[in-house]
Amino acid sequence: MPVLARYFLALGRVLLAAVAAALTGLGGGVVAAAPQRDDVEMVRHPAASQAAAELQPQEPPLSPVRPARRGTSRDARPEAGSQAEADGGLSWRFTPEPTLPNVLILGDSISIGYTLPVRKRLAGKANVFRPLSADGKRPANCGGTTAGVQSIEGWLAGRRWDVIHFNWGLHDLKHVKRAGTSANSDDPTDPLQADVETYAANLRAIVAKLEATGARLVFATTTPVQPGTTKPLREPESPGLYNAAATAIMRERGIRVNDLYGFCLPRLESLQLPKNVHFTSAGSEALAGEVAGVIERELEKR
User: Fold this and answer.
1) Where are the domains positioned within the chain?
2) Which residues have C-beta within 8 Å of that of residue 255, sequence separation ≥ 6?
3) What pLDDT does residue 58 have?
4) pLDDT tens readout for residues 93-148
5) What is the CATH number of domain 3-300?
6) By three-state DSSP, how is residue 151 classified?
7) Nearest-CA neighbor of 18 among 243, 289, 286, 292?
8) Residue from 83, 61, 87, 92 nearest 278 by CA
């Protein structure tokens, strides 16, 4: 199916789901919310809508956190531009302070880029963890929701979590040679790793596991894709579709949304690498400020 047709098909399905949810609300239906939540907040960035329009192309174009299970769809090698993930000189082990609350960051290479700066910003306030490789020396990339469903129980095991900040999306929306795999492709006729419907179903399953921990949850929206991004191919319009599906789930479940997409979209030129999804060091630091801020506010509400 052509890219443009697939885009409008996915958009139509997301809109139909939103209309159905709205009609349920008008009929007096009660939407269940996560019991640990006492409020729901969407961290919004007003300048994002104008920047989103400008970004669209004219034509479709020591950690107790266990490693991911072998055999998942998680990528084995970092993509080009994933600086923190590829930097073998960074130290990821640390000694947690038993009296401090525990924070878990789950996500792909974008979250890897801001994990250590977040840990530094929350020093003395929280122990900040993320999944690591089997030897504990490197960060684990949580990949797409296909890998997330397979590995989430291992990532959550072994510790009581106070706040979990999580994202999935950039791997789900990339083109692959066969759906559900990490055989990256630049061919627009090849499938996505997980289409919007599959992504939403997987994300619901992951959220159910996260809610069971009793932690305060924060979902980070998937960050933008610049035009011309390849190796693998990702389309600039895709994050909006996946974020719409994800935020609908978070509203339903009463989970706070940290809108990193809206935060960085108006300033992409200064934060993100060209024709890439990854960020410069300054960009990762900027994202870390947003992430640390929302985590700190959640910690205050425990």
Assistant:
1) 3-300
2) 34, 37, 40, 207, 217, 218, 219, 249
3) 39
4) 999 999 999 999 999 999 999 999 999 999 999 999 999 998 888 999 999 999 99
5) 3.40.50.1110
6) helix
7) 243
8) 83
**C-alpha radius of gyration, the chain, whole number:** 18
Whether the Cβ atoms of residue 67 and residue 132 lie closer than 8 Å to each other: yes
The pair of structure tokens assigned to 182 is 């990490």
259, 42 Cβ separation under 8 angstroms: yes
Please choose, from the candidates 39, 130, 47, the residue with its C-alpha nearest in 3D space to the C-alpha of residue 84. Answer: 130
How much is the pLDDT for 194? 98
How far is residue 6's CA from residue 11's CA, in Å, rounded to a whole number? 9
Looking at residue 78, its pLDDT comes to 66
Helix (H, G, I), strand (E, B) or coil at 218: strand
Q: Return the beta strands (E) in 113-167 as ranges.
A: 127-129, 163-166
Which structure tokens are listed for 137?
């020396």
The secondary element (H helix, E strand) that includes residue 115 is: helix 109-121
209 vs 149: CA distance, rounded Å: 9
Expressed in angstroms, the distance from the first to the final Cα of the chain is: 48
Confidence of residue 302 (pLDDT cuts 50, 70, 90): confident
Task: Give 32's pLDDT tier (boundaries 50, 70, 90).
Answer: very low
What phi and psi, each to the nearest 5 degrees, are found at residue 137? -95, -15
Residues 6+ away with beta carbon under 8 Å from 61: 3, 188, 227, 228, 235, 236
Assess contact for 165 and 104: CB atoms under 8 A: yes
Helix (H, G, I), strand (E, B) or coil at 241: helix
Mean pLDDT to the nearest integer, 68-81: 51
Question: CA–CA separation, 255 vs 283, rounded Å?
Answer: 25
- Residue whose structure tokens are 């960074």: 90
